[in-house]
Automatic annotation (TrEMBL):
<keyword id="KW-0472">Membrane</keyword>
<keyword id="KW-0812">Transmembrane</keyword>
<feature type="transmembrane region" description="Helical">
    <location>
        <begin position="79"/>
        <end position="100"/>
    </location>
</feature>
<feature type="transmembrane region" description="Helical">
    <location>
        <begin position="302"/>
        <end position="323"/>
    </location>
</feature>
<dbReference type="InterPro" id="IPR024041">
    <property type="entry name" value="NH4_transpt_AmtB-like_dom"/>
</dbReference>
<feature type="transmembrane region" description="Helical">
    <location>
        <begin position="383"/>
        <end position="404"/>
    </location>
</feature>
<feature type="compositionally biased region" description="Acidic residues">
    <location>
        <begin position="418"/>
        <end position="436"/>
    </location>
</feature>
<feature type="compositionally biased region" description="Basic and acidic residues">
    <location>
        <begin position="455"/>
        <end position="465"/>
    </location>
</feature>
<dbReference type="Pfam" id="PF00909">
    <property type="entry name" value="Ammonium_transp"/>
</dbReference>
<feature type="transmembrane region" description="Helical">
    <location>
        <begin position="51"/>
        <end position="72"/>
    </location>
</feature>
<feature type="region of interest" description="Disordered">
    <location>
        <begin position="418"/>
        <end position="465"/>
    </location>
</feature>
<feature type="transmembrane region" description="Helical">
    <location>
        <begin position="7"/>
        <end position="31"/>
    </location>
</feature>
<feature type="compositionally biased region" description="Basic and acidic residues">
    <location>
        <begin position="437"/>
        <end position="447"/>
    </location>
</feature>
<feature type="transmembrane region" description="Helical">
    <location>
        <begin position="177"/>
        <end position="195"/>
    </location>
</feature>
<protein>
    <submittedName>
        <fullName>Rh50</fullName>
    </submittedName>
</protein>
<feature type="transmembrane region" description="Helical">
    <location>
        <begin position="216"/>
        <end position="233"/>
    </location>
</feature>
<feature type="transmembrane region" description="Helical">
    <location>
        <begin position="335"/>
        <end position="356"/>
    </location>
</feature>
């Protein structure tokens, strides 16, 4: 079996991008001298400090998101494997884009950019954003399309950070807006263009379903994400803020977990739906991100988590079917329910928390300006950042989808590893069938003969694959 054209394109595009990254890095990047052990006595402490957070975020992105998306019964290799590749690609590309926009913001000529561990954490944040969008088109795209999606999305993602954070001065320590909302609505824009005409076909596809084993693997991803989410929200926070980040995130996650179980039973005739538990239980981590470092009190964090978990579960059971049946949008992983809706809830609760802080400056013990650089105008800046994020993400997804759509076809065998991954069992069965066909005698017209005995074999083979 020869190379598919899409795989030749994949190899070519990925190789060109990687060479470009090497060249750009060699010219533009260097070590951050402040992390040089010869100039900083606290080098080891600082390295260990940030590397701990980097490791936690990397585990979330590669293992957490990767295994969360293994719920499709025949797409486990693709879900975990593509997540691994995209993470490695996105960290490099995010570093380059972030460096560019930081220097534009500082009105400086392009000069060598200092790479430090916080920059690597930001690279993983970019990868997480792409993983969220990947979930919306999970099982429906080729490896070539995924690389191109990641390439274009990171450009829009970094530009949004420039506008929303660097220029608008919004506060969003855990990325409710700039990571989760952005990733979700970029993914919705993508799937609207790439797969909307095939929504009914995708919904009815027997491979677009889970099995008992795949659901268990997906739940493993959920647990990894749930455990490491406090690190994700607090990785780049000021040391004095992290105490509140951890407390608020844990309390919010606990309540979203409880809320997902309650609403799952209510909406599924007395039984737990694995989809709800795997996803909505994490909504609290998404929703508390914007206000994680603010004075919202533990009960505020709990309320955010409970609301987010409840609305996320409702989204999976009511909103997703509506989008599929009435609007024709197919969101494979339901990223709109896990990241989009909770992201909006997080942005709105963040506005309320910021408004409360601007009303009572004593909450922040003289550090008001460091939390709210725009002073009493900060709530409006938060609202503006939300509008900017939703606009850039959705239309960025539409534009990227249009580009990808005309560069190549979608996957021929959606929701299956078979098309692009070597599987010894399935490939051996295919080779055996091909040999049987080749060994059949020719009929009078020179074509292979067939008999009724071959039909059950063919049906059995297709169902097994």
């Amino acid at each position: 079996m020869g190379f598919k054209k899409t795989q030749i394109g994949f190899i070519s595009v990925l190789t060109v991008f990687q060479i470009a990254f090497l060249v750009i890095t060699s010219i533009w990047f260097r070590y951050d001298e402040s992390f040089d052990e010869t100039s900083d006595a606290d080098f080891d402490l600082r390295t260990d400090y940030y590397y701990t957070y980097y490791s936690d975020v990397a585990v979330m992105v590669i293992i957490g998101f990767g295994y969360l998306m293994t719920f499709l019964k025949k797409y486990g290799l693709s879900a975990a494997g593509y997540t691994f590749l995209l993470a490695a690609f996105c960290v490099q590309w995010t570093l380059i884009n972030n460096a560019f926009w930081h220097q534009i913001h500082e009105y400086e000529d392009l000069h060598r950019f200092d790479v430090d561990l916080p920059a690597l954490i930001e690279g993983m944040f970019g990868a997480a954003t792409v993983m969220i969008s990947f979930g919306a088109v999970l099982g429906k795209t080729t490896p070539l399309q995924l690389i191109l999606i990641a390439f274009f999305e990171i450009i829009f993602y970094s530009f949004n950070i420039y506008l929303s954070i660097l220029r608008t001065h919004a506060t969003d320590i855990g990325g409710s807006m700039i990571i989760h909302t952005f990733g979700a609505y970029f993914g919705m824009g993508l799937t609207t263009v790439l797969t909307s005409k095939k929504t009914k076909e995708h919904v009815k596809n027997p491979d677009n379903d889970a099995s008992h084993v795949s659901d268990i693997f997906s739940l493993i991803g959920t647990i990894f994400l749930w455990l490491f989410w406090p690190s994700f929200n607090g990785a780049l926070g000021v040391p004095g803020h992290r105490f509140r980040v951890i407390v608020n995130t844990v309390m919010s996650l606990c309540c979203s977990c409880v809320g997902s179980y309650v609403w799952s039973v209510l909406l599924n005739k007395g039984k737990f739906n694995p989809v709800d538990v795997q996803n909505a239980s994490l909504a609290g981590g998404v929703a508390v991100g914007t206000s994680a470092n603010l004075y919202i009190n533990p009960v505020g964090a709990m309320g955010i988590g409970l609301i987010a978990g409840s609305f996320s579960t409702i989204g999976f059971n009511i909103i997703t079917p509506f989008l599929e049946e009435k609007i024709g949008i197919h969101d494979t992983c339901g990223v709109h329910n896990l990241h989009g809706i909770p992201g909006i809830i997080g942005a709105l609760s963040g506005i309320i928390a910021v408004w409360a802080g601007t009303e009572d400056h004593t909450l922040y013990n003289g550090a008001f300006d460091s939390y709210f650089p725009e002073g009493n105008h900060q709530p409006f800046r938060q609202l503006g950042a939300l509008f900017i994020t939703v606009t850039i993400s959705f239309f960025g997804g539409l534009i990227t989808g249009l580009i990808i759509k005309y560069l190549g076809p979608n996957a021929e065998k959606p929701f299956s590893d078979e098309e692009f991954w070597f599987d010894e069992e399935n490939d051996a069965e295919e080779e055996e069938e091909e040999k049987e066909i080749e060994n059949k005698p020719l009929d009078d017209e020179g074509s292979k003969t067939s008999s009724s005995e071959d039909i059950p074999l063919k049906v059995k083979s297709s169902s097994d694959n």
